[in-house]
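Request: Mind sharing a record?
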Amino acid sequence: MISGALFALIIASSARIPPIDECAIHSDFAQFRSELRRTIARRDAKALLRVVSDDVHASLGGDVGKKDFIALWGLDRPKTSGIWEELEETLRLGCVMRSGVASAPSMEHQIGDRDAFETRVALPGAVLREGPSDRTPVVARLSWDLLTLRGSWDGGPWVRVRLDDGRSGYVRERLARSPIDYRAWFHKRAGRWVMAGFLAGD
């Protein structure tokens, strides 16, 4: 039987989830993803839309299909569209392969039974501070640490969180990513990879 102290140590040591990449070993997907990254770098809307499925899920509000996808992301003005930064970040944060579906980032699948609405992941460079200000003392420097929200987020630049070891404080919201922030999934259709969805929320 595991002692209480040892159990606490195991929990503390498992409270960080660096991205994993299960998709790189699938050579056809890896090639597809590399080309998609080049498309993002060029901000090439035409090339992006060639790999977006005709029934792509673009939001949880019923936006389905390329027409809605184009309108939602302003792809008629591709140079100013916000999709490029969001999609680039999504692909950067790992990938899992489940039953022929590639999903990015990996963190949604790494949090286990934790409540996705109450969980955040500290991106590298995040700092836990005693108060919601860069002038307050540092509690911890974070990298891929699992965080639990304390109270509801009011939309401000800071979120109040707790580490699994009990320490609490505030982290810059932009460095505390939700596992249900923007995520993409891909599958093969007619022998080629397509993006079947890109959305945030649950």
Residues 27-110+180-199 form a domain with the Nuclear Transport Factor 2; Chain: A, fold (CATH 3.10.450). Residues 27-42 form the longest helix (16 residues).
